Amino acid sequence: MAKTLLEKIWDAHIVKSADGFPDILYIDTHLIHEVTSPQAFDGLRQRGLPVFRPGQTVATADHNVPTLNQHLPIKEELSRFQVDTLTKNCAEFGIELYGLGHPFQGIVHVIGPELGITLPGKTIVCGDSHTSTHGAFGAIAFGIGTSQVEQVFATQCLLLQKPKTMKIEVNGTLLKGVGAKDIILYVISQISAAGGTGYFIEYAGSAIRALSMEARMTICNMSIEMGARGGLIAPDQTTYDYVKGRKFAPEKNDWETSLAYWKTLFSDEDAKFDSVLTFNANSITPMITYGTNPGMGMGINENVPSVESKTQSEQLSYQKALTYMGFDDKMPLLGKPVDYVFIGSCTNSRIEDLREVASFVKGRMKAENVTAWIVPGSKQVELQAREEGLDQIFLQAGFELREPGCSACLGMNEDKIPAGKYCVSTSNRNFEGRQGPNARTMLVSPLTAAAAAVTGRITDVREMMETSDFER
User: Where in the sequence is the domain holding 405, given as residue range(s)?
Assistant: First the structure.
């Protein structure tokens, strides 16, 4: 019987299945951080239970950590308490922790892939919605709630209904100045922030196959922003080349055995999806959001859609979003002054993102009206950036290269955007107050963010690329 990629991996992990009941699914890797794990650990204590398989759990501190002076005690009281609690819980239950000061510390969805913990064919969960990132390797990866975190601690399994499947094909060649972030923002703008609800999405097509692993992670990361349970991309030679030689990747005979299995991980030609959508890469331009959910996006040289273009039931919430952002319908965003530029988050904080930004800003200077933060996704990314001299390029351009963490993506730490200020951000969410109370967020690619930092306003990066030596 023909199967989709999701079905192949799912079925291989079923511990028990019965008609009318959820499947009991085995979980290969459990990633945890300081925000969603404390209550789960307390639940174990109350029931007198150990962590069933601590060797399959990996912990790091990322959401609440400061991105300056990480060698000093955390100033913010709640953040310090949460990070300290994670340290104590991991010590008590025998879990490996990559805390502040550890060379492997970083955003949980960045360190998993770069350490070779994330592998094709795995089931991976974390108490964080953007666990979908790991699906770029051909893994079933998704976020879970705190009660489910406790279930995995106790049993290494979850009770789950198999989700519906959707295939999103993107075919053709990307235009100049367009990258993975633009692809996913475009798709979400076309199907809405709820268009993937109930589905696990497999991305396919020539444009997806042409992407690097880091770009594929950006695509899968934002699957959740269209309401999907997760996203995945079938592994191929690009995947194998990325994984090979990483710290915890299989070696020698184990590598050959693993590789043989990974090469079976694809959707059969006649596999049936519950929904199939197709997009043309040539239709995608640099994207930007104008509202308060990731589905409110448009090409950067377009105008904000009119209120009249929305259905009667949508108009009130649509106007509310525009009012929050300080935008009028039908207005262009090109030329709009900005206050902050944030390049980071589990969406766009990998070395490839930093290299692209550095290549673009080299020899340029940020605008005086802009505060520009670059926050690497991990200590390894930070170290590599410094070894390659990217830190000096950023310094000379007036950008601030900080230490790793989730940072201004969600403002649970000290990195918040002031009320009323505009932030052009490479993160994944633009909800009201996401980056700080009453902060205004516009989601873009790293390249578009870099252009905004240099010009001090919303800019079509393609115009600047035509007058420089920069090439994507």
Answer: 296-465
Question: What's the number of domains the chain is made of?
Answer: 2
Secondary structure (3-state) at 335 = coil
411 confidence band (pLDDT: 50, 70, 90): confident
pLDDT of residue 154: 98
> Tokens in use for 62?
């990322």
Any idea what the CATH number is for the domain that residue 451 is in? 3.30.499.10
399/393 Cα distance (integer angstroms): 9
Answer whether residue 197 is part of any domain.
no
CA dist., res. 393 & res. 360, Å (int): 10
Given a cut of 80, is residue 463 above it in pLDDT?
yes
C-alpha 416/C-alpha 410 separation (Å) is: 8
Query: Which of 136, 161, 186 delimits the end of a domain?
Result: 161
Cβ-contact 407, 388 below 8 angstroms: no
Q: How far apart are CA 252 and CA 367, in angstroms?
A: 51
| Assigned domain for 172 exists | no
Listed residues 135, 161, 187: the one ending a domain: 161
pLDDT digits (tens, 9 = 90+) for 267-319: 999 999 999 999 999 999 999 999 999 999 999 999 999 999 999 999 999 99
Residue 266 within any structural domain of the chain: no
Evaluate whether 60 touches 33 at the Cβ level (below 8 Å): yes
Beta pairing partners, 257: none
Is 107's pLDDT higher than 90? yes
